[in-house]
Amino acid sequence: MTETFAYLDEDSKRSVRRTILKALAVPGYQVPFIAPEMPIAYGWGVGGMVVTASLIGEDDRLKVTDHGSDETVNAVNIRAFFTRTAFVATTTLTREATLIQVRQRVPEAMLAEGQVVVYQVPRPDPLRAFVSSAGEAARMHAAADYGRVYTRLFEERTGSGSIAQPGYDYPAMVVGRYLMSPSPIPKRDNARLDNSPAIQIFGAARERRLYALPPYTRVESIAFEDVPFDPGYPSDGRRCVICGCTTSHLDHLLLKDDGTSEWVCSDTECCAERMEEAASA
Amino acid sequence: MPELTVAQISEQMRGAVDRVMTEGALYDRDLAALALKQAQGDVAEATFLLRAHRATLRRMGHSAPIDFSAIRHDRHISATVKELPGGQILGATYDYTHRLLDFSLMEEAASSPLPEEAVSTSCAPPSSRCCDRLAGEGREPEEAPVDITRVPLRPPYGASETLGHLVRGEEGFLTGIAYTRLRTAGASHPYVEELSAGEVEVFVELEDIGLTVSVGDIEVTACRMVAPVLDGRQSHLSAGFGVAFGANERKAVAMATVDQALKSGLDPDLVLGHGDGVEASGYVSHLKLPHYSDFQADLETIRRLAGDD
């Protein structure tokens, strides 16, 4: 298809890498960047692909998941794209991967130093849920003026306002300075962003923004001192129909005719590992 | 250069033909292909040609409501659950394609036999909707559908009237409106609960003789979206519906997003009053007509106000 390694030309990749360095230097700050066009539609992970294409080298080993799964069509497609354009080795095992591109989940397996996790981000600015003007949102970030966010959170708590934040894409404060969208991961995954040994990079191509977390960065879900953050663990006793796990994040598999639901682990790697352990035990 | 035939357009420019049939509000592949040929591929112009032709046809009546759960699926997906009743059928889509120019198409292809169909499309059982108990339709059922070509648009807008205007609405306009809703949505984000494409049978009730007869099969794409409405104990899922002739998922998803947004505060005057591509392109084009006297009058007003006479 193309003669360029990992599709993008070297100048574009270098410019993206410079943006990544700046983003790592100012954790949580949304750096504007020129996201070059990729041959995949916006909304399908172009922001992550641009970052992956800019970082990937011949020695890398790539893991791609969509919603925790290595097997969904989108994950398979993105992996195939880099296999075709960069000829890199791929894996479904987190411990073997050097680069991990994800959508809507943080890998549940332990991350290690030297690894890079690349997140696909649809709405990079958490303030856009609170103010409609992009200019006003930029001013609020510059002045660390997040009072409105806490006010809405307080109103939600007291029942006098509408729901400020859903159960996913729950804003987090980075090193006490910048409010950050963790991308649409379930809010329980926010804890996995905190103090991670891996480098974490967030790419939003359509919105032309990129931000990052260097290793061991403090990331806190917004809350009050006396009302701690609620990670939103389910309490209906749901369990995975494959491995029986009750603690991992589960996806809705099927609503049966009798009104009951079946659930399945969203992280296919950890689900498979649990099955193997059970088989060898 | 040999002349392009209507049959070639109908067979090989399917996306354009389907779009012209939908916005032109006439299910006729040959006439849509003819319109595209005459309009040199200009979709807005071809839609206009088909609409104008449609206006000359005698109105026979309306069909019975189409049962979209009876679609013989070529494609059937859900973004809300991993499995859905009737089964997930990935089918043909541009979604996962790599948008790379295929230079092999520069060469004229030798004629080759058509590949045998890989999937049987007639055996999938009718599907049922997943979240009916959560997502109320939110609209009162109407006696008979409103024919929007006979009933002028005026508020309040009924359900079939709204859907009629949306389905004929210009695809780019609806996609843009849907996109603005997604980018400014804040806490609420709609989900594709069920997207279906395939053939479905159309029935007409013949009241005089008390029979319901099939008038044939049409190809459609239908989409049902649900969006969370968060409002204390009144919190619920709100549904939107989109449909298009042929294979057109962009239109069906955009329309369903807009239909749902209309139930959540989107201004119906803005959408229903400005979504028609034939009306919009006509009015925008009219700016090229002579406007000597009104321009002169405006000029005089400017001079008077600016105090320079």
Automatic annotation (TrEMBL), chain A:
Keyword entries, A-Z: 4Fe-4S, Iron, Iron-sulfur, Lyase, Metal-binding, S-adenosyl-L-methionine
InterPro entries according to UniProt: PhnJ
Reactions performed catalytically: alpha-D-ribose 1-methylphosphonate 5-phosphate + AH2 + S-adenosyl-L-methionine = alpha-D-ribose 1,2-cyclic phosphate 5-phosphate + methane + 5'-deoxyadenosine + L-methionine + A + H(+)
Example GO biological process: organic phosphonate catabolic process
Enzyme Commission number(s) of this protein: 4.7.1.1
Function: Catalyzes the breakage of the C-P bond in alpha-D-ribose 1-methylphosphonate 5-phosphate (PRPn) forming alpha-D-ribose.
Protein name (Swiss-Prot/TrEMBL): Alpha-D-ribose 1-methylphosphonate 5-phosphate C-P lyase
Annotated source species: Yoonia vestfoldensis
